[in-house]
Design a protein that fits this description.
The protein has ten helices and nine strands. The protein is an alpha+beta fold. The longest helix has 26 residues, at about 165-190. It has a five-stranded antiparallel β-sheet with strand order 1-8-3-6-9. Keywords: DNA-binding, Transcription, Transcription regulation. It comes from Levilactobacillus tujiorum. This is AraC family transcriptional regulator.
Length: about 290
Amino acid sequence: MALDYLPVINTHFTLFGGHLETVPADWQWPAEEHPAFELMYILKGRQRTITETEELVLQAGELTIIPIETRHANFALDHRAMTYFCLHFNLDDPALRYLLIREYAGRIITPWDAIYSQLKQQAEALIAMIGPDYTLADQPDLQVSVIDVIMTLVKDLKATGKFSPQAADVDQFRLCHQLASDLKAQLDYQVYHAAVPQPLSVARIIAGRNISQSYALKLFRKYYHESPQQYLINLKLTTAKELLQQPRARINEVSAKLAYTAPSHFTREFKKHFKQTPREYLKELKTNSTN
């Protein structure tokens, strides 16, 4: 006799904490990456978020999800204080991680999105739980609240017909993500540890994963919508902004750390990507710090 049954499910999620903070007008946070998703909710002011592949400007009331291990830097805009809430969480199901990254990376959730009201309400419920200490009785409420956030995101994917993880897609995305991590690790070593920075060989890094250059190109175009070489260029330019923010930063020194053949080449790529030259960016930083 056939019996209906519920499946065995052994999926875990982790809450890595969260906080509410009001920061001054000149606030900026250097580029970093987390081993978790980061939900950001702007309550007051505006925030610019620069990731490896794009630049987002979040208005008060808007939310975004920064994916796992995505390098990003945040800045307050408008010469005024900004209040934001961030929540760090992760889950161990690779298919769900893949879907959240695929559909929410680079997306700003605004009042025009179907999930906006519910997600905002859940973020505000978590804000209301913030306190100086927590008891064992508080843990179930926190766990349920984080699960509610995850379920809101997942249900949105189901409602829009985007909940279709295939095993091959998950495996391919994992490999592509590993290649991206290799590029970031090599760039970090070149910039922060190498005595004499040398240009990175994308081909050599791809070969280290024992796959062909054409297959790597296919993966990056599928999941990052650009070539591995362009992905590396975006990484370098995001790092350039971080280096230019350091006290007494010099354009030729930043160019050398990133192994550009000449400062003029660095300037051309920087302007193409950010619509301003490194010198104009330094001037903007100086103006913001004095206002």
